[in-house]
Amino acid sequence: MRAYWCLRLNNNIGRSSNGRTPTFEVENLGSIPSLPASLVQFWNSRSIVYKFNKTSMKTILVDAVDCFVSDTGVIFKEMHYLLETYSNKKNILTGASDEQFKKFGLNKMPYEVFTLKHNPEKTDPKYYEILLKYFGLSKDDVIYFEHNPKAVESAQSIGIISYYYDNNHKDLNSLKGFLDLNLSSMK
User: Fold this and answer.
1) Distance from first CA to last CA of the chain, Å, rounded?
2) Which of 10, 22, 64, 175 has the fewest CB atoms within 10 Å, i.e. the most exposed one?
3) Where are the domains of the chain?
4) DSSP per position, 154-170
5) Nearest residue to 165 (alpha-carbon basis) of 83, 100, 84, 59
6) Residue range 87-143, pLDDT digits in tens
7) What is the rounded distance in angstroms from the CA atom of residue 26 to the CA atom of residue 109?
8) What is the pTM of this model?
9) What CATH homologous superfamily does 59-184 map to?
């Protein structure tokens, strides 16, 4: 279910202080499971109802160590620049323990970092089930890229669109192609 909001022209207040811009009331209509489109719009006595929520844009799940950041804690700047060209939310995924978290500099990342401290590992589908529940997301709300083929298979096994990123080749053009293809299709 998604959250819907109603934007209603506020006739009681009229125009804003500049006298030109109309003001609107916002009303949370709550979750309405029967409206299916990604963006729903309809008119009803000068009201517009839009479907908005945190998942109206897919979240990009980014592998941490040996992908976004080296094992010495250095961010792969070109990948960071690429990710910054997308307005989507990004989360970095790791299995790092508290000690590894500091060692790899994960406490200094530009995006929120999620870890289950190797319990379970990312090669276990339960990792992704816990992740989705933690963030209140579904498999259709995310895409993921990862350097470990077994972790990619694990995420795919629960329906997450995933991409194997070969950290030895650092092919950002192919990664961009994956992101463009899967972020442009709002399923």
Assistant:
1) 14
2) 22
3) 3-51, 59-184
4) HHHHTT-EEEE--TTTT
5) 83
6) 999 999 999 999 999 999 999 999 999 999 999 999 999 999 999 999 999 999 999
7) 35
8) 0.71
9) HAD superfamily/HAD-like (3.40.50.1000)
